[in-house]
Every structure is written in C-alpha cells, then in structure tokens.
Amino acid sequence: MTTSLALGPRARTRRRAWFGCGVWVAGSLFVAGCAPKRLSLPTDPGRPLPDFEEIYRDATTSCAGVRTLTAELALSGQAGGQRVRGRAIVGFERPDSIRLEGVAPFGPPAFILAARDAVAVLLLPRDNRVLRGARAEEILGALTGVGLAPTELQAVLTGCVSAMQGATGGRVHGNGWASVDLAGGGVLYLERVNGRWRGRAASRAGWQIEYPEWRGTFPQTVHLRSTDPRVVVNLTALVSQLESNVEIDPAAFTVTAPPDARTLTLAELRDSGPLGAR
C-alpha cells in the first residue's frame, strides 16, 4: 500500500490534476505545452554594487527561511524534444526530503517519488513497478530532465536559486538591473519593483532560471532552461497553493511498494524518460 500524501490541509483536494511527466513511464498521452521565449540577461560588466549583501538578504529572506514547503505545480514546455504538460503536488522538508506525486483525473497517481536522508523510492502504482537504490536527483533527472537535489530544487522554486546562502559580490547593469554573485555558485539578477529589489532571473551551473511573476514573497511562475547542450529541457512551472513552514507528516517522505511490485532500474527509467526518448 502507498502512504497517503500528508503535505498539509490543502493537499487532499488536489487529486483532480494530471501530471504529464509521468507519461514516459505510465503510458499516458502527451499534451502540447508552449515554452516562453528566452530572456536576455545583462551582458555588460556593470558597475560595483556597494550594498549587495544587504540587497541579497532583503531579496531572499522569505525563501531562506523556508523549512518545509508544499505546493501544486502545473508544468508545461519541452524535455528532450518532447512536449510536456501536466500537474503534480510536491512537498519539501530540509535538508533533503521530497515527495513528488503525479496525480491523475481518477485512480492511483501516475507516480510517487519519496526521499528522506538520501534514500529515494519511485513507485509507479499503475504499472506496479518500483525503483530503489537511486538518489532523488537521479530519479528526477530521468523523469523530467531536471536532475537537481531536493534542497536545490526547493531553492530554485522559491527564488533563492542555490541552497547555499550568501553573496560574494554585486553589480548594477545598464538596463537598471542588479546582479549578485551567489556563494553557492551562480548569479541572481534583480530588478526594482515598487522601490525594492526582487529576483527576476538567475543562472547556475547548467541552468538559466526566470521569475516573471510573483505572488507575495514567492515566485508564481518559474521558467527553467538547460544551458547544457546535452540536456534539452525548457520547462515552465506555475506554482499555486504554496504553503511554507507547515507541519508535514514524516510518512509523506516514504512510500511502501506492494510485495508483488516488479523492479524498475534507473537505466530503464532513463530510457523511457524524455531524454532517453530523444
């Protein structure tokens, strides 16, 4: 039996969604999604930003303080040349726990990924198959092409970009944006909104990230593009029903496969996933 998803009071109302990324392993159909045009980041050297540390702290206070997070994600775009559209619910708990569930209009989920303490399990209830012994980022990479560890994925979705906090330098650019070099690697680009700096885009190893819309103190829309030519991923996540620092049942980060579930290997998952399909 699978563990019921216990990610907070709203999670139980979310099962009407369907997550397209489960199609490679669950046999569903793709639904086309449109990827946005790439945002041009500042290329000029800029001039020094003396108060970059204070600006960085002000812009990332909310995401830096997230201990737990639950949200619904509506995904669209492309992965490995395949068009993707669908929904999932996700839960995080620092330092490294995640539950990602691809929900369907009826019946069992397309898949359930649960991980805690670097131990990840992927269950495909519709196929009665289970993958054990891989890290969460390896499974995420095979499923969606986005091979980020849970803590790094949480940082991307909440606007912090990198799980390692801190800034090492900053500049002001010709278009009025500022950029801050991140201690964990990468750059956060900010623009002024109502007199305050707010994250608009970022770059980190292998990825360009854009934050075109915010709701309150967290991004409402996240664009994630691979800058590695070997990984063709261009996804948009619409983030809704976000709740931070709520109590999450520890059982949410585990999943128990039926005794008769057949073993699925990471290589098989990769072959059937978007990058394998390419």
What is the strand and helix layout of this fold?
Elements: H1 23-26, E1 47-48, H2 52-64, E2 68-79, E3 82-93, E4 97-102, E5 111-116, E6 119-124, E7 129-134, H3 136-144, H4 150-158, E8 167-172, E9 178-182, E10 187-193, E11 196-204, E12 207-215, E13 218-226, E14 233-244, E15 262-263, H5 266-272, H6 274-277
Summarize the structure.
The chain is of the alpha+beta class.
Key terms for this structure?
278 residues; alpha+beta; outer membrane lipoprotein receptor (LolB), chain A; 15-stranded mixed β-sheet; 15 strands; 17% helix; 39% strand; disordered N terminus
Terminal-residue CA separation: 34 Å
The unreliable regions are 1-5, 8-33
CATH homologous superfamily designation: Lipoprotein localisation LolA/LolB/LppX
Average pLDDT rating: 86
What does this protein structure show overall?
It is a single chain. With about 280 residues, this protein is an alpha+beta fold. About 15% of the residues lie in helices and about 40% in strands. It has six helices and 15 strands. α3 runs parallel beside α5. The chain is globular, with a radius of gyration of 19 Å. It starts with about 20 loop residues before the first helix and ends with a helix. The N terminus is likely disordered.
